[in-house]
Known about the structure:
Elements: E1 2-7, H1 18-25, E2 30-33, H2 51-66, E3 71-77, H3 79-90, E4 95-99, H4 108-119, H5 127-136, H6 139-152, E5 163-168, H7 176-185, E6 191-196, H8 209-221
Parallel strand pairs: 1-2, 1-3, 3-4, 4-5, 5-6
Pfam families: Abhydrolase_1 (PF00561), Hydrolase_4 (PF12146)
Protein name: Esterase/lipase
InterPro entries: AB_hydrolase (IPR050471), AB_hydrolase_1 (IPR000073), AB_hydrolase_fold (IPR029058), Esterase_lipase (IPR012354), Hydrolase_4 (IPR022742)
Amino acid sequence: MIGCLCLHGFTGSPEELQPLTERLQRKKGWLVYTPVLPGHGVGEDIGEAEGAKWIYTADRAAEEMLKHVDELYVIGFSMGGMLACYLAAKYPVKKLVLLNAAAYYVNRPQMVQDLVASYRGSENPWLDLVNDKRRETPMTAFYQFIKTIRLMRPFVEGVTSPVMIAQGMKDILVPEKSATYLFEQIGSKNKTLRMYEHSNHFLCHDVEQDLVIRDVEHFLKG
């Protein structure tokens, strides 16, 4: 049996990966699991969440899945991508997929470009969602996010699994330098970097959704 552990992003939910996870769940002999990180569930207060608990939740999920599957794949989106790097450095992860993984965060030039475009009537449909999340998220939670990213970065060099790194070139939250940093620093000899020219942060829901999902499937099956 193949296990596929999927990790969502900061302030997000399993829905961020849903189009991809639904496709993978159709595969016979695949166990697909997307845990909800502490503070991100319905009725939970993200302002009370701790980065250590996010790490612990991902760690326990990988440990448990390895007891029941023959091979473990890990897919991480945004902050979940950095948690995925940690798992791949610690456990025998067969393949790793990083979707807009947040080794670095906030793409200010793209954000300014989108703001200017919105004033000219060509609005980025994701801009309002991003701004709403930013306004609603307490500073204590942002601090835990930054702390978690910094804790995860040293594990990048320890990743030896085959890895696919995917980056939306119009992402206003995670800049391109995050993807290039991961491609250069990850220790694996088998790594692929795919840049999606028209996609923003939410790769699995944006205009190149079908291409992203196809590329991930091809990588995992290949």
